Amino acid sequence: MAVAQQGDLILLISKDRKVFQVVLKTGTRVQTHQGTIMHDDLIGQPLGRMVQSHLGRDFLVLPPSTHDLIREAERTTQIMFPKDIGYLLLRLNVHPGVRVIEAGTGSGGLMIALAQAVQGHGEVYSYERRADIQQVARANLARLGLERFVTLKLKDIAEGFDEADVDALFIDVRDPWSYLPQCHAALTGGGFFGAILPTINQVAHLLDDLPRYGFAAMEVEELLLRPYKAVAARLRPMDRMVAHTGYLVFARKMVGQINEEWFVPVHGRDRAAARGDMDDYW
Amino acid sequence: MAVAQQGDLILLISKDRKVFQVVLKTGTRVQTHQGTIMHDDLIGQPLGRMVQSHLGRDFLVLPPSTHDLIREAERTTQIMFPKDIGYLLLRLNVHPGVRVIEAGTGSGGLMIALAQAVQGHGEVYSYERRADIQQVARANLARLGLERFVTLKLKDIAEGFDEADVDALFIDVRDPWSYLPQCHAALTGGGFFGAILPTINQVAHLLDDLPRYGFAAMEVEELLLRPYKAVAARLRPMDRMVAHTGYLVFARKMVGQINEEWFVPVHGRDRAAARGDMDDYW
Amino acid sequence: MAVAQQGDLILLISKDRKVFQVVLKTGTRVQTHQGTIMHDDLIGQPLGRMVQSHLGRDFLVLPPSTHDLIREAERTTQIMFPKDIGYLLLRLNVHPGVRVIEAGTGSGGLMIALAQAVQGHGEVYSYERRADIQQVARANLARLGLERFVTLKLKDIAEGFDEADVDALFIDVRDPWSYLPQCHAALTGGGFFGAILPTINQVAHLLDDLPRYGFAAMEVEELLLRPYKAVAARLRPMDRMVAHTGYLVFARKMVGQINEEWFVPVHGRDRAAARGDMDDYW
Amino acid sequence: MAVAQQGDLILLISKDRKVFQVVLKTGTRVQTHQGTIMHDDLIGQPLGRMVQSHLGRDFLVLPPSTHDLIREAERTTQIMFPKDIGYLLLRLNVHPGVRVIEAGTGSGGLMIALAQAVQGHGEVYSYERRADIQQVARANLARLGLERFVTLKLKDIAEGFDEADVDALFIDVRDPWSYLPQCHAALTGGGFFGAILPTINQVAHLLDDLPRYGFAAMEVEELLLRPYKAVAARLRPMDRMVAHTGYLVFARKMVGQINEEWFVPVHGRDRAAARGDMDDYW
What we know:
Order of helices and strands of chain A: EEEEEEHHEHEHEEHEHEEEEH
Radius of gyration of chain A: 22 Å
CATH topology of the largest domain in chain A: Rossmann fold
Number of helices of chain A: 7
Oligomer: homotetramer
Helix content of chain A: 10-25%
CATH superfamily of the largest domain in chain A: Vaccinia Virus protein VP39
CATH class of the largest domain in chain A: Alpha Beta
């Protein structure tokens, strides 16, 4: 049985679902709204158990997932949601061995996931032009022990990226179309381009410009996460849900001459909504 | 500029969107419905370009993403969808350094993603009781050069898993409730449990049993992927979409005594659909 | 140009989107959080204009739609949503000339829509066993001038409905399966049965019982309404939405012997999620 | 018990879910792929029963709902879906007593619903400029016995509508923004304007123009219908669904001077996706 160690990052969760991220350190304590817990009562003990504060209130002791880390990161800007991040990692082929650029750093939700996914077996570059935002992101990384897995860059991406031949590039700025030459220059041939945009007007603008700057195989998708009340006898979707985070736009860097046909999506061709075909689904 | 190398896995995509996975090997050729392409015309050349078959038909040459690999895997059973897989990896905290069990192997879509995510910096165990299914999965892995990253096990999980203290376990069988003692035994304290189930009756059954076998913090979610026609001037969702792949169920392994309160979801609490709150959204 | 008349029901909407329902009456005034408006300033004037309160604050003067009336009805219980009500009316074939039963009355959202749809050219019976709830519904009807279009019944439906050969029956109670003989007795042959249920467990229970009591052609559907920010230059879905109101269950009353095959859905057959078919939609 | 009468429109449904619309007439027969059924075996008999063809194959005999009529209408163009039509009727306040314009007629799905909803207690005007399309719509109406409830107009709406002071107007053309002066002229003050548009670019164009032509209180919504397999023991959404039919745009006709604030939506205000608010829904 693995036990909690000095230096481990763990979660303490109260019955009213408040979450406390704690880096374990002998001799210290965590203050909660429901009393104090000594780190020494956690170190050397198994995870997945219930502990009590000095007020006798119960807390669950759990290791965090990447999902938890993203949720609990300190925020300066709108954070990306795990549903989008998990899909992006597959789409942009992020895993050990790849080199990937993120522009901009923002609150660092995606950066945390990139750092976790690559873990130093590859390279993660995160560009941000505002020092204050970068500072919060750096602190988030440090707290999670992930700072050695990301190279933080304080730079306006209008000046271009310092890297070349990167495998994937994700851009999360208001006007990604303004930086397509820089993105194209940084990516390797066939490299993965991704963007997230809140409005459909932005999506139209980006789609219009991508082919002009040497990208093809564009796709647009969105993900909806529907949470359920996890009660066996009264199973039902939650009353409310997050209805929109952003549209995901994907494309591939092309080199040389490309026929216009390639500018349409590679996957996701649609079919005519012919009557016979639609009929069963009314 | 990175160039295609002998032994690389690449995609050739025709204008009618047929996808050919090719492992490059000097002196060989790939046969398509639109003519033949010599591997020697690809080796040493950049990716992200257009090539022509001997019939003069255009093909796009691209490196595959994990997303592409899952899509193109040979199938014996229903395959998991990338939208679900990407989210699972974050939820179950799969990344370099972890040990994870998958039961069963099936067509191997998730297995490919697990292998890519861990890449030997950790351990992936995939259990399957049918030799024929395992054989196809093994061939898929081998073709992708990922076989060294996964330990394939031919075993009925009713007999238990061979590992202990694994960080995460994902089960994709018809009756996961039948194997909860085995799952609990294999996981480390606080470890991540995940399942995917097509019917809501199965979800209710599993939710009912999880607390009896030492699991808590259950959550149920589903993901909907909505693809769009990626045409700037006529942006719209596709006419049709995959409406259901499966419900995702998550829980954590507990050790020791746990109060009943923890059996309800940690996240995702719902609010009363009070009038004032709902009003704006009609 | 139609003008507002004494006795008309109109809406006054403030800039901060508070909605005031007003029945126009000479010599009276409406008090709002932004000042007073004299009915005499509205009577004889066109609708669709802007008026000012005595404090100089702007209000929009609009006639209400059925949609508005449902939204603004006083509530004793959870109200049905317009998205579900509109669909139900088509599904249950409610229009002038039909006789329809509603059980129970509840807050009266559906009842208002039934009254509007039939307008006395047909019959609407609304059953409720709690007098206090019926009283609020009655007041809602009276305020809207719709009371003559609905027969309110104060009765436990376990005792049966007073009508026979009705064209459609909608039941909105916690346990509709408990009243299927009564529903069957009230409906005409081939008549339309509908129910709304919040949990999937209830849906399973109802589906299980419907064929035992002489119903067939069952269908289950749900409707999701996604609102958008209606701003031309920044079009996007709202951040949040109502994720669940209820599952809609439909069936038809059968008479005589029916083969078991008819108990499965008439419409909405599903197809095998065959690979070739699903591929485009990942 | 109501029985089928000479002249009634009924549905015959085979076990393989083929639907035959039949107007009953003594002495005639209906030919199906599974044998012949004599009308005389249906006339004077109850609905909701099973009959057999001369080949001994079973058919269900049911009265149609408006929903069925729309589904089974002969089509010349893309038809509107019942999910959208039901909601529109509530939104545009269509019921006995109103005067409503539809432009254009198209395949007549909405027209059938308007005719059913008003049934001569009010007026329905349906404009179409193509005679061939109007002819099919007219035949659909006649077959359903609804022709006396709709005034079909063969006219280009660019020339304006013949009516004034109508309560509601629904426009289903490619470029509704081109006809806003005509729509405004036809509607009464505060009257209901609705449109359906397949692409988001069209929605942006229309939203941009509506305020210029005297409309306010714009709203944009879309409805998703999710069908389920109606099997109690294996409840699940269908594998596939119709993902998009169209965006619904609503507005109200204004008269006189209107402040700019009213051009934003009356309902459906959004909230900041503040962290505390969103947190539970990840």
